[in-house]
User: Fold these one by one.
Assistant:
Number 1:
Amino acid sequence: MKELLGQVDKAGVVESSCILQGAEISVSTFASRNHETVAKKAFSYVFQNVSKLRTKHDEAHLEIGGKRLSGFMLNGERVLICMSDKNTNVSLVREHIYLLKPKFEA
Amino acid sequence: MADYKILFTGSVCSGKTTAIRSLSDIETIDTDASVSDSAIRRKQKTTIAMDYGVLEMSDSSRLHLYGTPGQERFRFMWQLMMSDLVHDAQALVLLVDNTRNDPFKDIRFYLDEFRDYLVQRQLIIAVTHSDQQAHPDHAYYMNELKGMGIFTTVLFIDARYPDSVLEVVKSVLAEREPDLNWDELGQRLMAHRPPVIEEEEESSEAPVAAETSEPPEVKLFSAVSLMDAAMNTRGITGAMHLGADRKVLETNIGSMQNQAMLKTMVNLVAALEKKVAFLGHIDNLVLCGPEHETLSVFVEERQALGLCSEKELSLAVVKQQGQDLLQWSGE
């Protein structure tokens, strides 16, 4: 899993990433614990409510300070979280994750 | 013949097209299309590619006037213009709409976008619409810009009046054209060209640079409300306006499911604002998926906006629409 996360981190697109399993981070490349904690709390809360309200949303983006935290739902109630610079085109981040998502879900 | 170039940029409705029309001796080339976003609050048409005009300053000097489209989604045109058509321009004129809730947010954004371009050329900040919103005034701008480390010329202009826009040109080219009779040129322009009447608003007042330096107040200038503007915006299907306390002021979102989810998102943002303020301001939270409308929350100190939009709309467009809607709204 750590190797897969290594593929998520890509210069100019994704700075760091982690996997949220339930309410805990199982594996991470985040250097900033503060951002990791915010992402964990935010996406746990958001996707719990998505499940409760049955809205079928599977992706969330939170812009805070100069960073963008993105959460992508994976199978097995896991969330792939990544952090990018706020000025990075969000489409680039999404395309990059969509390409890698099948590997995480295999 | 000396040929000069000036590039005008700035947010939607800041007066770029009007300024170029005011000065141009030729029928300006513009690429207007019907507005399909938050700019509906101010006008029916917007520039989608570029504006171009020419001012014959004298028998031996000519000025080419270029204007960028204001909307961020057309930023590819900015790059195209900077690297090609106006790579040799003498100055960048940043038009700042004084009626925006936070004009300095626009200044920071455009200076960041044009940072490399400005290395080799002059910057003029030209404040427009001060007849509708006098604050912030000139002193306030100078003070704020000084705080941002920006030392440049700030002029208050009325883009509809040729002699007013000519002051901007004079600031750029007076030293390069020492023999030019600027007063005569101004008189010629005013004599042969009536003030350009903008489609969105008409006002006969002259530009105002107010004397006090109080912080800006939030005011509504359009008959179109924030909710109406949101609903006139391409792809938006519902909106929720929230106050400083993050309580709902108004909503037209029909789906209870979407309403509940947006409130959840607002609650999350409100909680994060209190607990992790040290990480910086929360700009927005967006939730999307292939089978559901995109939900987004945009946050400012004095208000917040929740939007439901079609899932096909790109997130970049959703983001710009939310930010623009808040820039022209009051509580």
Number 2:
Amino acid sequence: MPSLYRLHRAALCAAVFGIAAISTASAEEIIIGAATAQTGGLAPYDQPALAGLRMSLDELNAKGGLGGKYTVKLLIKDTRSDTAQTATVAQELIDAGAKIMITPCDADPSISAGQLTQPLGIPTLTLCGSAPVLTGAVGDVMFGTYPADNVQATAVADFAVSEGRKKVFLLTSPDSTYTANLPEYFGKVFEKKGGAVVGRGTFSMGQPDFSAEITNIKGLADKPDLIMTAAYEPDFPAFIQQLRGAGVTIPVYGADAIGTPTIKALGKLVDGVVYTAAGYAEPGSKLEAFNAAFTKYAGHAPESTYEVNGYEIGLILDQAVKTAGSDDPKAVRDAIAGLKDFEGITGKITYAGTDRMPLRPVALMRYEGGEGKHVQTLIPDAADVPAP
Amino acid sequence: MIAQQIINAVSLGGVYALLALGLAIVFSIVGLINFAHGELMTLSGYALLASLVLGFPFPVAVLVAVSCGALAAVAMERIAFRPMRGASVTSLLLTSFAVSSLLKVVFQNGISARPQAVAMPGWMTGAFSFGDFTIGVGPSISIVVSALALIALEVFLRRSVTGTAMRAAAEDFDVVRLMGIPASRIIATAFLLSGLLAGLAAMLWVAQRASVDPLMGFTPVLKAFIAAVVGGLGSLPGAVAGGFLLGVIEVLLQATLPGAIAPYRDAIVLSGVIAVLLVRPQGLIPAVRAQRS
């Protein structure tokens, strides 16, 4: 009888779990895990992006959820801007049943979370991590959402060349993928289009003393007519404060991470600084409508384009679940990877044919008198974009 | 260009010296490395920002900010460290970490995780030139303020009764208490001075970085700790020497290291610290009476 008893018990178990499985399925709920920074250095980027994502998920839930039938339950855990902590909370979210993972605005923590989701096939999207090496470092479940660093750098380089700039100084920091690589991508495009890199300097993130580096810049035999850096806060304000303080008036260009209220509030100090954004709210545009809707939703206007980027992640997931016709992680992944000319808020978003870093427009902006002014919006020629 | 780099080095070294001195004063009296020293800087930074937003003239705002740092240090002693008096060095150290983490979270959740821009007056970003040689107003102020603060502190410690009592307490606290000088007053004064130094250093630090954020105190307190250890823990002249040495080494390495090695700057600096400590385990200028640590 023992074997029969065991069989009996197995059947009972199957029945219980079967019922359990059916009951979750009938609720049509999909858990999205958000391992994002609510504290620490990445919080100023993750929080706005997450606010945009929440807004879109709330709206989608009101219409029945992702693909109109899977109500989203968003679980959020704080990574404290720490790479190891990101892996820990990602594992907790996986254990809690996350079928889609959202990771912070930086390559390193996103990769650490991706290493956990990749073997399980859970589609993973970084909020605004833009290092193009990010997706390759993890595998086929990892998606970028923001315009990639090499795409942004190409856009800025194209603009600098069109302005007639010839000699650039690149300021990098080996402390993050973003600060290390973006200026180098710029340098590659700039050189290919006839410019020259006349000097390179480095800085340590979080250390506000740039005096030695600035003295080096001043002492260059071949004077640059442009400084390109991917430094962001708190390093960028320190750099530009000390650069201008030392009497150097060479223009400084950067990328998306300096499109923030903090940098804008520097006022005259950042006059002429060019940066990038995921879009620009022209009158009558979808982005303008989004900004109004977000202001109503959150009680304050969007700080940057990270909000709309987060919102578009919700739209991408909705479209992917619709296409997949299920919440099966693999089908959803395939659906995201196949997106082509998807109408977002900022423009068309394409994953098909890319290395899971989207092709999408880049807006070039310039600070003037404490305001970010739109310069132009473009999608750089794919042939110009340097390989990651 | 070499002269320029020397000015850079002295300017950075001066800030490190102020910070290290703040740590050393407290350590010399109570045997505590106050890792919440950096948060005193953060607090001063936010006080400066708030005063400027409220429309105070710049000098008044600076005064308010520095006083806030000093008062916060005294409050910190009263609330967090006084109840722990007589506790082991480890307990004190952990208390200071707790205060530091707590304040960081309060700043992050109460104010904002995002750095706030601090608009320094225009003349501070200016520069004046001698021939082909330019000195920024910022570094000059930094050097002058550090020098004045160091001199003022020295005068206070040498010439005033409280100062003399503090120097005596650093050598043998028990004997000073037997002489009838209240321990609480000495300790509170030590914290007040360290808060003042933190406030001043914060002004110079913020003037350089043009923004304040909840985590801005971490790097400086670390540098100050290194400087204080190199100089000789608990020794005030040592802290100053250590601060300047650290500043000079950092700037010179940044200026001269070739690009490929530059990322290892901090590793090289710390190796240098180890080398100094191997030769002089008690630091460059050891304290008169070595403290428990």
